[in-house]
């Protein structure tokens, strides 16, 4: 979207955007009563209130999903900023300094060839 960030923060961003969108729609619907009044304004308000409520419920679901993902995420120390961060999947970014991190040594870019050879020669259960 804008600048890359961690996956958990991306989910939270979409939840926040849906919350703001839903609130904006509900306010816009209420403005229909002020401008048109009567039954037309009430129908306009009801439609926008329902759409806004659906958006708000979707944001609650996204926040809940991000929270559940956050509880099972791997916690590790960022090599750049030294803070604890959570990583989802094999690759992710630091939640604070946006440094790319990976749990897979084959995808790491700053390892020497000797380090890669020693990693690939060790058995996976060691």
Shape: rod-shaped
What structural class should be given to the helix and strand makeup?
mainly alpha
The main sheet orders its strands as: 1-2
Q: Which radius of gyration do the C-alpha atoms yield?
A: 23 Å
Strand content: 5-15%
The run of helices and strands is HHEEEEH
Total beta strand runs: 4
Keywords: Cell membrane, Membrane, Transmembrane, Transmembrane helix
InterPro entries: UPF0295
Pfam family, one: DUF2614
Walk me through this protein's architecture:
With 126 residues, this protein is mainly α. It is built from three helices and four strands; from the N terminus they run ααββββα. β3 (91-93) and β4 form a beta hairpin. The longest helix is centred in the middle third of the chain and has 34 residues, at 38-71.
Topology overview:
Blueprint lengths: L6 H30 L1 H34 L2 E4 L6 E4 L3 E3 L6 E3 L10 H9 L5
Antiparallel strand pairs: 1-2, 3-4
List keywords for this structure.
transmembrane; cell membrane; 58% helix; two-stranded antiparallel sheet; 4 strands; 126 residues; mainly alpha; 3 helices; two-stranded antiparallel ribbon; transmembrane helix
Task: Give a quick summary of the entry.
With 126 residues, the chain is mostly helical. The protein is 58% helix and 11% strand.
């Amino acid at each position: 979207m804008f600048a890359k960030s961690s996956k958990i923060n991306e989910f939270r961003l979409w939840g926040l955007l849906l919350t703001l969108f839903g609130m904006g729609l509900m306010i816009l619907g209420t403005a229909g009563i002020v401008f048109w009044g009567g039954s037309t304004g009430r129908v306009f308000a009801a439609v926008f209130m329902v759409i806004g409520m659906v958006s708000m419920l979707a944001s609650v679901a996204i926040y809940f999903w991000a929270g559940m993902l956050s509880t099972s995420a791997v916690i590790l120390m960022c090599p750049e900023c030294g803070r604890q961060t959570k990583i989802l999947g094999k690759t992710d970014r630091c939640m604070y300094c946006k440094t790319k991190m990976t749990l897979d040594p084959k995808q790491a870019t700053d390892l020497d060839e000797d380090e890669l050879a020693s990693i690939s020669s060790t058995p996976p259960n060691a």
